[in-house]
Design brief:
37 strands; globular; 5-stranded mixed β-sheet; 6 helices; 675 residues
Length: 675
């Protein structure tokens, strides 16, 4: 008897397999969107590792831009698969994306968006040509998008709270066009890929500066490309890629500047089995990366030239400890387990350091997986964080704790060349179980603790303590009114967090009376509880407890719910998010009359789709086909806005209806046409 392996299968049986009907029910824009939604549904807290048709490839992103119905299925592999397919981070889930053998489509999409409060509209359009023939693929995509600016004069409530600001823009006017091309080809026993694109964008908005209104005009353009190869050489599996980018940026207005940047990255990784233990083969992964960049910028009074250099080498070792139960064979009574060890060294201009990882994975039962991880990592700042030119950002509303008033300030944005590399120590423990019953119930829980030194981030909410710690970042006029905040990134001395998360997903049985033939119904829930969150914002200052309201405060609890359904020609996608309220202290370490009570916040997004015309295979087809699809999406369905109150119950200045979210609820009508 000959047993044929299933096309595209990975080396692990999946925890959960998503069928074509379930994929179509997601209402996703492309395969990358599908991957993101499914990773969130199974409790993934970091971007997943993506393999294609059961294999690791040098550039999986070249295939993530295809339409969702180019997928045959998506497999969520068990946590133990991270030991073999992971790339150094033992906490990432692995998703196996299996493409159709053949796929050919011409697609067009047009959309119009409008705020239900008026004053803001957006238009978008996309043309896409996609083709798959076995391992050879190609796609060309053209995109255009534009949105109107939103003026303060369109929001009477805002003008009432901020008299004299009618000339300000609350949202910028933006125009953007882009084109990109991706190709994959079989080159004998090797596989090659190319991905390239060009983008251009212009924006305009009015800000206040030095008592007058100034129109800022920004212009940017970028060209990027990536070439990759994957195959086998001398019994090693090899993946290598070379990528580069060129970009320019200019702004005219309050802080005129022009900048040009270029960068290049070479990535190479190889792996093979180096020895065989009773539980299975030991796999060795070796990797290296070289990165170079240069940035030239010229402002009103200065010219700067900055260089970035980073080099990384690393090794990972995956060691099987016990093997899976195999009928008719001895051993395997404990279920499969793996140990993954990793080490790398990074040398960078902003600081060098070592990365160490330890991951342990065990599936004592077919439907139960346990995993643990410890990570010590050095994280260098990005070029954007270091070299972005100094610019004036969109006006923002803040609560000025010194005066107790709401003020509209102009933020300063850009990079900070003096940033140093951060270090992160993280431990995590997790358990996942399922699927159970015909409803394919999956559940998981994890606890994660992280400690960071020199964390790279922006200033927290501008409380009295934060202004006292960073007086050079705040600018006030002669009357003492706050007019500008420097929001360029900083190194935060240290921080510590501990987070408990849980997730649950349920899917209706295929072809049941509930979903009908070819339909699908999926429900996903996730919950996070912040057990600890403290920080030392600057050397010499005391530790701040963010859960108690220090350093801007933070919500203790968050809850997410997602519902995706398809029946006949209709689809429904519902997403809800709620975070608990919290306190925002004026002075760290103590409650006071100047504190703010930030209200609990909930938001619901709704999307409805209907296939108007299905040509070629008839209306009973379970997949999208030639014809016309109409989508109606409502973002922020209940038109909720962030709220806060003073300790005496009055609405806090800076938290008026249009202060934090002037757009509010928006409705988008989208037409999708396949030719």
């Amino acid at each position: 008897m000959t047993v044929m392996a299933r096309r595209g299968a990975a080396g692990f049986a999946p925890d959960r397999e998503f069928s074509p009907a379930e994929i179509d029910a997601l209402g996703a824009d492309d395969i990358g969107d599908v991957v993101g939604k499914l990773n969130a549904a199974v409790g993934g807290q970091t971007p997943p590792v993506v393999i294609i048709n059961g294999q690791r490839v040098a550039d999986p992103e070249a295939l993530l831009v295809f339409p969702p119905d180019a997928l045959a299925r998506v497999e969520v592999l068990p946590p133990t698969a991270t030991a073999i397919y992971g790339d150094g981070d033992p906490t990432r889930r692995v998703l196996n994306v299996v493409l159709l053998r053949r796929f050919d489509s011409y697609d067009a999409a047009e959309g119009v968006t409008s705020s239900t409060s008026g004053g803001y509209q957006a238009l978008s359009g996309e043309l896409k040509r996609s083709r798959i023939v076995e391992a050879d693929t190609s796609q060309l995509r053209l995109q255009a998008r534009g949105n109107s600016g939103l003026s303060a004069s369109d929001r009477p409530d805002y003008l009432q709270d901020h008299p004299g600001s009618a000339a300000l823009d609350l949202r910028p006017q933006v125009r953007r066009v882009a084109a990109d091309l991706s190709l994959t080809r079989s080159l004998g026993d090797w596989r090659g890929a190319f991905r390239g694109g060009v983008q251009a964008q212009r924006s305009r908005f009015v800000v206040g500066a030095d008592g007058r209104f100034i129109a800022n005009r920004n212009s940017s353009a970028a060209l990027n490309g990536k070439v990759s190869l994957s195959g086998n050489l001398l019994n090693w599996s090899v993946r290598s890629s070379l990528s580069g980018s060129l970009s320019r940026f200019s702004t005219e207005g309050a802080t005129p500047v022009r900048s040009n940047e270029r960068s290049m990255t070479l990535d190479t990784s190889v792996n093979r089995n180096v020895l065989t233990l009773p539980a299975g083969p030991v796999a060795l992964d070796l990797s290296g990366q070289v990165y170079r960049s240069r940035s030239l910028s010229a402002g009103a009074n200065a010219r700067t030239s900055l260089h970035g250099r980073t080099g990384t080498v690393g090794a990972d070792l995956s060691i099987p400890l016990t093997r899976a139960v195999t009928p008719g064979e001895g051993g395997g009574r404990f279920g499969p387990s793996f140990l993954k060890l990793g080490a790398s060294h990074r040398a960078a201009d902003a600081g060098s350091g070592d990365n160490l990882t330890l991951g342990a994975f065990w599936s004592p039962l077919k439907v139960v997986s346990l995993n643990g991880a410890w990570v010590h990592a050095t994280e260098a700042p990005t070029d954007l964080q270091r070299f972005a030119p100094l610019t004036t950002g969109q006006a923002i509303v803040v609560h000025d704790f010194r005066t107790g008033r709401s003020v509209t300030v102009t933020p300063l944005l850009g990079g900070n060349a003096s940033l140093r590399s951060a270090t992160r120590d993280m431990t995590s423990l997790g358990v996942s179980a399922g699927p159970f019953t015909t409803w394919r119930v999956l559940a998981g829980a994890s606890v994660r603790q992280a400690r960071l030194a020199r964390e790279i981030g922006a200033l927290p909410m501008p409380t009295s303590d934060i202004e006292a710690a960073f007086p050079e970042r705040f600018r006030r006029d002669d009357a003492g009114d706050l007019i500008s905040i420097d929001q360029r990134p900083i190194n935060i001395t240290s921080s510590s967090t501990r987070l408990l998360t849980g997730n649950l997903s349920i899917s209706a049985p295929a072809d049941s009376a509930l979903v009908g033939s070819g339909g699908a119904l999926q429900l996903s829930l996730s919950y996070s509880l912040r057990l600890n969150d403290t920080t030392v914002i600057r050397d010499g200052l005391s530790r701040m407890d963010r859960l108690s309201g220090d350093a801007g405060g933070v919500a203790r609890q968050e809850f997410f719910i997602g519902l995706d359904a398809r029946r006949d020609r209709m689809t429904l996608n519902l997403a809800g998010h709620r975070q608990s309220g919290y306190r925002l202290r004026q002075i760290s370490g103590q409650d006071g009359p100047g504190d703010l009570d930030i209200g609990a916040f909930s938001m619901i997004d709704l999307k409805l789709g209907y296939i108007v015309i299905m040509a070629g295979r008839g209306a009973e087809s379970a997949r999208r086909n030639q014809g016309l699809t109409v989508n109606l999406a409502v973002e922020n369905l209940l038109d909720r806005r962030p709220e806060a109150h003073l300790t005496d119950g009055r609405v806090a200045p800076g938290y008026g209806r249009d202060d934090r979210d002037p757009v509010g609820r928006s409705v988008k009508l989208e037409l999708l046409q396949r030719f």
